[in-house]
């Protein structure tokens, strides 16, 4: 398939010139349409605790680390953590961080837990909507054993832009050599503390995503 036929097939809503030079000029001026979504971290119902977690892998496989934060219905921090885990894979690190966070939630006596992550696949594994790879099936089972120790549990997907606190903690794990637990906001890394304050004030972040459709220049 030649270039002209390909581009007119993929983007039929644009009037493409037949001359090659004119076609190139128009292509250079075209831009992707961008979808902007307003997102923000949402507080929990009364008597619930929210656990936000995230994992970070420098390569796949490669060095991995986890981070997460427990917050109450007012958004106040109860516990946060950043932990390096050595070598592993993307799938492994996502499960390791939720297991670490759930273990601490139960240890601290929180029995009504909302787990919020920015991986839809992880949500599907935990909520039994998809079968996990055999290599991590034991970790998924370990997670369900923790869930069974709670009175109420839910796992939800959230956009990455609403999960910046956990994301920054997971990235911070690559800068440390031993697990770090934080019991007050003042102990948090500077960047994490700023994101946490934004969440408490329910400040919005903007999620920008290019979509397949492109705009024809005016």
Automatic annotation (TrEMBL):
All copies of domain RNase H type-1, residue ranges: 45-187
Cross-referenced InterPro entries: RNase_H-like, RNase_H-like_dom_plant, RNaseH-like_sf, RNaseH_domain, RNaseH_sf
Annotated coiled-coil segments of the chain: none
Organism: Solanum tuberosum (Potato)
SUPFAM superfamilies named in the record: Ribonuclease H-like (SSF53098)
Protein name as catalogued: RNase H family protein
Record-linked Gene3D superfamilies: Ribonuclease H-like superfamily/Ribonuclease H (3.30.420.10)
GO molecular function: nucleic acid binding; RNA-DNA hybrid ribonuclease activity
Lineage: Eukaryota, Viridiplantae, Streptophyta, Embryophyta, Tracheophyta
